[in-house]
């Protein structure tokens, strides 16, 4: 079904939009009429996705200031403004506590926390020129509002992103820019592959037992990238003009149980 084109001609940047959740968000924004720029370190995959959704690509490593500055300059040159920024790019880290090094911790924070800030700072002048008020949407995680084993670096970065969202909402409100965060739960993407290469998290016995059989996911299934795209669309739409500094958990109800 064709979408209603409620973002017609808005300029949207989705970092990490080559695949997974970012690609689903990019597709949804494009269906709503936005001119979508996918900024991803994986340029080949980004180009394939951009072709499919009718968007464009700019290669960026969000942890590398030089490429982030170039990204903002290229958007300025091509469009002269940015209406929507989705800070989605991130890496997974599941290092056990005893194996965690400060080098690894810094790397995860460089991408998952500082990277989002770097893109926001670089594009803020363009967001101030947004047609109907700019939108920043940070893709955090339920792991940014809960603790778990072997997740210290990832969860700390995502927790930082959650509170960074609230600060951005305060700092950017005078410029008619909202900032919100989405916290996905278990979503079926590449990130759900087990780090040791032994399979898929959602196919493991512990996932099937704890989260499905014993009901820790009340809706009874893992999520799809499209489950995140709808709430993401809402938060960057005109309907969310009075929503800022908020953190929406999109997790099939995982965080509602104990
Ligand atoms: N999949 C899940 O279960 C889940 C749950 C909670 C939160 N999230 C969050 O959702 C977002 C998307 O995750 P996903 O599951 O789609 O992951 P994914 O690995 O499928 O996609 C991530 C994308 O980000 C890009 N990327 C990684 N590092 C980058 C960098 N330095 N610069 C630019 N691009 C970079 C990758 O190339 C890839 O295209 C992430 O922020 C992730 O933390 C995912």
General description of the model:
The protein is of the alpha/beta class. The chain folds into two domains: 11-187 and 224-249, Rossmann fold; 191-222, no CATH class. It is built from seven helices and seven strands. The chain has helices spanning 20-31, 43-53, 65-79, 102-127, 152-172, 205-213, 225-236, and strands at residues 11-15, 35-40, 56-59, 84-87, 135-139, 178-184, 247-250. Strands 3-2-1-4-5-6-7 form a seven-stranded parallel β-sheet, sandwiched between helices. Helix 1 crosses helix 7 (225-236) and helix 4 packs parallel to helix 5. The longest helix has 26 residues, at 102-127. The radius of gyration is 18 Å and the shape is globular. The relative contact order is 0.14. It binds nicotinamide-adenine-dinucleotide.
List keywords for this structure.
2 domains, seven-stranded parallel beta sheet, 7 helices, alpha/beta, 258 residues, 7 strands, Rossmann fold, binds nicotinamide-adenine-dinucleotide
Task: Give the SSE map.
Blueprint: E1 11-15, H1 20-31, E2 35-40, H2 43-53, E3 56-59, H3 65-79, E4 84-87, H4 102-127, E5 135-139, H5 152-172, E6 178-184, H6 205-213, H7 225-236, E7 247-250
Parallel strand pairs: 1-2, 1-4, 2-3, 4-5, 5-6, 6-7
Helix pairs in contact: 1-7, 3-4, 4-5
The chain binds nicotinamide-adenine-dinucleotide.
Nicotinamide-adenine-dinucleotide binds at residues 15-16, 18-22, 40-42, 60-63, 88-91, 111, 115, 139, 141, 184, 186-187, 189-192.
